[in-house]
Write a structure and sequence with these properties.
Elements (H helix, E strand, L loop, with lengths): L10 H9 L4 H9 L27 E5 L10 E5 L5 E6 L2 E6 L37 H33 L1
Antiparallel strand pairs: 1-2, 2-3, 3-4
Length: 169
């Protein structure tokens, strides 16, 4: 603006002032670096008719806040390119506001790729499956069966030893 509210700042100007007192070698390096040119942005307050359309949809939608009391109503514009951008005016007073996510409008929905299914850590086997605890009667029967089996094995071993002694004589 002509009032000088916005102006371009060259970061190398401050560096040049600080480096004036330093060696001549650094001055040679400074001469080798390129000069930074100021960027030129679009002019402020351009007409909305100049905004680009989005697939045959106008860039802005205009509405009035109230049709019941038109003398107190304000006009507002909603941006179709930047959802959440609004401009409103009442007489010669106007303002802009943006309450959005910082993403332009796109005609296709964003659908990220689904993550892969989790891998099986281990298979369910008999060592993992929970079992009910046996009843005391069942434990007693199992213990008796083990003792009986152990006694039968001892008797068989004694018979084999006894038969083996007779054959040696």
């Amino acid at each position: 603006l002509p009032q000088g509210r916005t102006k371009w700042w060259n970061p190398s100007e401050n560096a040049e002032k600080e480096e004036e007192d330093e060696d001549e070698d650094e001055e040679e390096m400074k001469a080798e670096t390129e000069e930074i040119e100021p960027e030129q942005g679009p002019p402020l307050l351009t007409p909305i008719g100049a905004d680009a359309e989005i697939e045959s949809i106008k860039a802005w939608t205009a509405k009035i806040s109230s049709s019941l009391i038109p003398q107190y109503a304000c006009a507002f514009l909603r941006s179709n390119l930047w959802p959440g951008a609004y401009a409103f005016s009442r007489g010669m007073a106007w303002e802009n506001i943006y309450v959005g996510y910082g993403h332009k409008y796109v005609t296709t929905d964003y659908g990220p790729e689904l993550p892969p299914l989790p891998a099986n850590e281990y298979n369910d086997g008999p060592e993992i499956v929970e079992a009910d605890d046996p009843l005391p009667e069942d434990e007693a029967k199992a213990k008796a069966a083990e003792e009986q089996k152990a006694e039968e094995e001892e008797e068989e071993e004694e018979e084999e030893e006894g038969n083996g002694d007779d054959e040696d004589d």
